[in-house]
Amino acid sequence: MEYINDLIRRKDRLLPEDEAMMLLENGEYGVLSMVLPDEDAYGIPINYVWDKQRSIYFHCAPEGRKLRILNGCNRVSFCVVGHTRVISNQFSTEYESIVISGTMVCQLEEAEKRMALELLLDKYSPEDKKIGLKYMEKSFHRTHVLKLIIESVSGKCKKMD
User: Fold this and answer.
1) What SS3 state is found at 16?
2) Is the separation of the CB atoms in 104 and 148 below 8 Å?
3) What is the mean pLDDT of the chain?
4) Average pLDDT in the 121-128 region?
5) Three-class SS string for 119-154?
6) In principle, which of 80, 89, 146, 155 could form an S-S bond with 15, CB 3.0–4.6 Å?
């Protein structure tokens, strides 16, 4: 995984790598963007969890538009937006965001799928993990897990006083 900010025009707005990784770890959701075979685009807000290495996991239904698109093209972009604040009298906005490029894996082994679902429980339902594990077992057969293999990350921010 490379942290690459070469393509960001405004070098004064680069998000430091440590802050970008913190945003990736703590972000609530992101927008997963895909390309359809007819060159149309599709983006969807989605919860996620980062394994603190090279993978981001998502859970979804075992069928649907997202999976049909990914079967045609597994190259994706994923954007996480953190803190934002509109500064009305300055006609501007404070923000922080990261954009991730990579390849989606749509079929995982059962052990990795379980691990990913547990990571999601740790992130979104830590106080209810015991109940969540029971729920996971009940719905395991009807839950699909996707894995985004991170190739590059870039980050941008605007901080104002």
Assistant:
1) coil
2) yes
3) 90
4) 95
5) HHHHHHCHHHHHHHHHHHHHHHHHCEEEEEEEEEEE
6) 155
In 3-state terms, what secondary structure has residue 20?
A: helix
Rounded Cα–Cα distance for residues 159 and 136 (Å)? 40
In angstroms, the CA 69 to CA 91 distance is 38
pLDDT in tens, 138-148: 999 999 999 99
Contact predicate 45/29, CB 8 Å: yes
Decide: 153 and 25 in contact? Cβ < 8 Å.
Answer: no
Cα–Cα distance measured from residue 157 to residue 94, given in angstroms and rounded to the nearest whole number: 7
Phi and psi for 58 in degrees, rounded to 5? -130, 150
Write the pLDDT tens digit of every residue in 126-141.
Answer: 999 999 999 999 999 9
CA distances from 53 to 5, 48, 50, 134 (A): 19, 14, 7, 27
CA distance between the termini of the chain:
32
